[in-house]
Prior knowledge:
The chain is built from nine helices and four strands. The chain is an alpha+beta fold.
Amino acid sequence: MTLYIKNMVCGRCKMVVKSELDKLGLQTISVELGEIELQDAITDNQKEVLLKNLQDLGFDFIDDKKSKTIEKIKNLIVDLVHHKNNELKINLSDYLVKNINQDYSTLSNLFSEIENNTIEKYFISQKIERVKELLNYNELSLSEIADMLNYSNVAHLSNQFKKITGFTPTYFKQLKDKKRIEIENL
């Protein structure tokens, strides 16, 4: 049995959801971003308890096809930006089409309709949050970050960063109170 979960955006989310499943004695085949596959069907009572526990933690079930597709797009983008730097060099539309097996214009129209945002803007906001994270770590130069996130050059990264945040990357780095946005709230 497969269940689709909203707001699963990172490895910790997977661990938390897996923990909740274990508490209920539910055997899993896999726990992926936005999707869990259970070994057996669950009762309505188990599903109700699981839903309540997950909602208390900021998660929710996804039941309709459109929402599942939107969540899959978001999870693929989050995973790409935050965990698969090597693959950032591929075209985003090709990446989504390959992983979702739907035409990009269909995905794009659906995303814009439901989210009131474009896939491209969502992708850029994820990249900017990743830049903020990397700037906070203070381990990489801006040039290394630009290269890592597949920006054509530092100027392109800086311009996009300023357009989204209102700050230059250098000024952001100097701020004492660095405001980052939680991934699921982008």
